[in-house]
Design brief:
Elements (H helix, E strand, L loop, with lengths): L11 H5 L7 H5 L2 H10 L12 H20 L14
């Protein structure tokens, strides 16, 4: 039998939560800060077009792995050991 738990509705203070800001310009809502914010974080910058974060990390892991395989085939310098004698 599945339990049904009825949680109380959050209060207005809990729903809104504390408000954090990055700088005093953001707190004051200056137009210069708004312009900087639009330039710094354009629309759609947080998403990759055509792929998601998981596939991007898969490709990066594969490229690092293949780079390691390429370095494993490097040859070291050969040193000839000779006995100390005349």
């Amino acid at each position: 039998m599945k339990r049904i738990i009825n949680h109380p509705a959050p209060s207005e203070r809990e729903a809104s939560g504390p408000r954090y800001w990055r700088s005093l310009d953001e707190l004051a809502s200056t137009p210069a800060f708004k312009d900087w914010l639009e330039k710094e974080f354009p629309a759609g910058a947080s998403t990759l077009e055509g792929s998601d974060r998981r596939s991007f990390l898969k490709i990066m892991a594969a490229s690092f792995g293949l780079a390691g395989v390429g370095l494993a085939g490097c040859r070291q310098q050969t040193r000839h050991l000779l006995p100390y004698s005349k």
